[in-house]
Amino acid sequence: MAEHVAQDFNSLRTVSHVPKFDGTNHREWNYEIHLCFQAMEVDCVVLGTELCPAEERNEENLLLNEAAIRQWTRKDVLARNCIMATITKEMKENLYICVNATQMWTKLNQQYQLQTEEHLHLLWQNYYDFNYTTGIIIYTIN
User: Origin, by domain of life (predicted)?
Assistant: First the structure.
């Protein structure tokens, strides 16, 4: 148990260089913290591709996969701590209702990814590249 605590504490040191996300630097923060998640091997939990295992019980109702559930929970808590350690107080306010790292990650990305300069550029490019196709009715007045 003490080994996990020391390992998790060292993992939090891994994100100490990540700039605090304040709502204006999403692209930089997202990239750097995602690299940290990969290094700590928690990126699958954050992205939602590794889900908490469902409880498996035997005839005596004893939990058979407690170790797997604990390991997933430890990864999730570590990821949530890393997210909270790398965002400003104002950004934290929107995340207190999230129950896992995937919800936090999704909420931040949905809210701020559209505001990144790169994505705005792509949206403008799509707007200017729009072509009218003959025969397709876009709007009808009754």
Answer: Eukaryota
CA dist 37 and 45 (Å) reads 9
Residue 82 included in any domain: yes
Domain that holds residue 34: 2-127
Residue 42 within any structural domain of the chain = yes
Residue 27: inside a domain, yes or no?
yes
The answer to the question of residue 51 being in a domain is yes
Tell me the pLDDT tens digit for each residue of 56-90.
999 999 999 999 999 999 999 999 999 999 999 99
pTM over 0.70: yes
